[in-house]
Amino acid sequence: MNTLKNANKSTPSMVYQAGYLEGYRYGGCQAILERIPPQIFGKKNIRVLYIPQGFDAIDQGVSEALQQLASECIIATPDKMLETAIRSRPDVVLVMNGLHVFPADHPDHISKIRQLGIKTAVWFADDPYFTDDTVELSAAYDVVFTHEQDCISFYKEVGCSQVYYLPLAISPAMFAPIRTTREQQFDICFIGSAFWNRVELFDQLAPFLLDKRVIIAGGHWDRLKHYDQLSRFIRSGWVPVPETVAYYNGSRIVINLHRPTTAGSDNRNGKGISGSSINPRTYEISACGTLQITDVRSDLLRHYRPGYDIETFHGASDLRSKIDYYLQHEEERRAIAWRSLWTTRQYHTFAHRVNELLEIVS
Q: Does the structure show a pLDDT above 70 at 4?
């Protein structure tokens, strides 16, 4: 982090101004939250065994919602899934994603659980990027949920009889407005792995970013052609959720660019399934009450309104223009950011999603 501090030095007057603006921002966020009516969902008479995927931003939100909405929520690790199901005999086993940290033979475990008369469901959260793998996994489950609209027909075509679109969301306990320090405050923030479309974008933005306060966080950013110019802005490696939340809160603008869907070194999507649904980062940024400028996916309009509670861009030139505009129009920037917070907390929490999921599997 020392390199970031050195790259973004501030004068005393700048620190004072930043402190004032931060207090105003945070106070506005709290006023928004106080006006959101409480979300009330009825508890379902269903016992759920939840198997997390090992990614806190999703796992915590789902487990919180299950504990709130199910009559009982049991949580087990992937390797203990079968023995826990035999012992606890839940009504349904819900597996999150089923990739990355799951044992290779877990479809066999699911089959044995189904033989016990227990319903099984999987919620795919990485579609369409790993569909070469999920196509085989999906057949093991009674019910398939996917956050990617374009994968619905894919799973039905390979024989899954119950397939549902279920977007991702946020945990209000994790992604929320917080106070930030000057070291966490930036003009522009991007957090994510350096997929090649992102590398191309930031190489094009490089000259524009040099006189701004910037953080680019994540892995593989040494792919940049202009790495030498931008390296002072880069925080390499995995960014834990609390640190991510601090950067989102402290940044005037957060850029979101979805990863490419084409098959290759970063994806296992041999069918070339397109992606129309928004990533979890869309909700997470908005839940922190900051202005998000995102590339456009067709499903975005189902959840947010460009120019009202989110902003969009088409290419590097458009993004430069919009960053320039909103850095100079503070009131408009804050208004969109506050509306994004309202929309997300009102409609896009994991309680909303899990309530819908339990209605389907009950």
A: no
C-alpha 331, offset from chain centre: 26
Asked if the peptide bond before residue 260 counts as cis, ω within 30 degrees of 0, the response is no
HSE-CB at 243 with a 13 A cutoff on CA atoms is 15
Mean pLDDT value across residues 75-93: 97
- Beta pairing, strands 70-75 & 44-51: parallel
Q: What is the largest CA-CA distance in the chain?
A: 68
Predicted confidence band of residue 89 (pLDDT cuts 50, 70, 90) = very high
DSSP string, 96-156: E---SSS-TTHHHHHHHHHHTT-EEEEEE-STTTTHHHHHHHHTT-SEEEES-GGGHHHHH
How far apart CA 48 and CA 25 sit, in angstroms, is 40
Measure the CA–CA gap between 356 and 135, rounded to whole angstroms. 24
Query: Alpha carbon of 41 to those of 12, 66, 70, 274, 355: distances in Å?
Result: 49, 11, 10, 34, 7
258-282 average pLDDT score: 92
pLDDT at 21 over 50: yes
Token pair for residue 27?
């106070």
The per-residue pLDDT for 16 is 59
Cα of 230 vs its chain's centroid, Å: 25
| Arithmetic mean of pLDDT, 234-261 | 97
Question: Token pair of 15, please?
Answer: 């620190």
The domains of the chain, with CATH numbers, are 2-33+173-347 (3.40.50.2000), 44-169+349-361 (3.40.50.2300)
| CA 250 – CA 259 distance, rounded (Å) | 24
DSSP string, 230-284: HGGGEEES---HHHHHHHHHHEEEEEE-PPP-SSBTTB--TT-----SPPHHHHH
* Higher local confidence (pLDDT), 262 or 289: 289
Query: What value does the mean pLDDT take over residues 170-182?
Result: 97
pLDDT over 60 (residue 303):
yes
Interatomic CA distance for residues 142 and 118, integer angstroms: 10
The predicted model gives 338-358 an average pLDDT of 98
